[in-house]
Amino acid sequence: MDKKKVILDVDTGSDDAIAIILAVLHPDLDVLGITTVNGNKPLPNTTENTLRVIDLLGEGEHIPVYMGCADPMVAELSPERHAESRQAPQKIEVNGEIVEYHSEYLDMLPPSITKVQEKRAVPYLIDTLMASEGDITLIPVGPLTNIAVAMRAEPRIKGKIKRIVIMGGGHGISNRTSAAEFNIWKDPEAAQIVLTSGCDVMLVPLDSTHAGDVTLEESRTIRNLGTPVAVAVADLLDQRIKAYDMFQPQKIAGSTPPHDALVVASVIDPDVLKDVQLKRVDVDFGGSICDGRTMVDSRVYPDNPPNIHIALDCDRQRFVKLLTDTIALSVKSESGMRRGIRQ
Predict the structure, then answer these.
(1) pTM score, two decimals?
(2) pLDDT digits (tens, 9 = 90+) for 101-144
(3) Is 127 a catalytic residue?
(4) Burial of 245 (0-12, 13-18, 19+ CB in 10 A)
(5) Predicted confidence band at 98 (pLDDT cuts at 50, 70, 90)?
(6) Residue 22 is part of which domain span?
(7) CB burial of residue 6 (10 Å; 0-12, 13-18, 19+)
(8) Residue 97 lies in a domain
(9) Annotated catalytic residue: which of 2, 9, 11, 303?
(10) Number of domains, the chain
């Protein structure tokens, strides 16, 4: 079976790192490149974190990393739209320990050796897609700035994208504000451009990712695999579990949703997603309390035609097994991880 060609677009913090590892290690995916964007952390941090993961996997010579947009398209031009008072807590100190979803850098990994490409993300996306046979799936798991800017700069790429599988939004669940999920909230104009692009879009919102929790026991199982990759993934999961127990307790106590990894898993195995519906989805970017909200029109006759598929649930056990089995493919070598696939 031919590998699926994918480009990852990431704002690498803890769950992006797990998603990158899953995508690179799995034999069904061919990761052509990775583009970075401002999101969980500023662009220099998300880029450095991405390079650290690539070095861990020993893929510096094989998977190029391109630095993308440092700021949202419009949102931060109006400071009141990003008022701190509207943001859910992200970091707290408890007994001298910092609890947070994403640290400034992935401190469990050494500083990167691999260098970022000279070409920037947007021209890379345009050039690669225009030269393709329409067989590349984009997997953006951060704010959609890079994808939207590329579409604005070269609209013809929309006809060259096989599919876009996005981590973002929420129907019944939010996180960054009372109305919005972080990735969409960070750059809502970009999200509206991509969701209404006419491309084949699958949106994987919080409704499905929060159904894909990984428990502390399952993290321990991954750690016991004993490879550098497995230990790093377990460290990332454990960091997230502490933060979720503090800020967003899940239905399963002592667990975390590694959002972005579920999106990659769904490209590998679409059956990890459940309750997939074709809906009309738009984004509010009017500067109100609902700024960044993904509005899912559930009416039988929406004002505008359905534009994307949205997954409202997932098969947790299937996802965790796929994640664990893929991490188990990692092997030790003197030069670090090299493709990570058992021959």
Answers:
(1) 0.94
(2) 888 999 999 999 999 999 999 999 999 999 999 999 999 999 99
(3) no
(4) middle
(5) confident
(6) 2-338
(7) buried
(8) yes
(9) 11
(10) 1
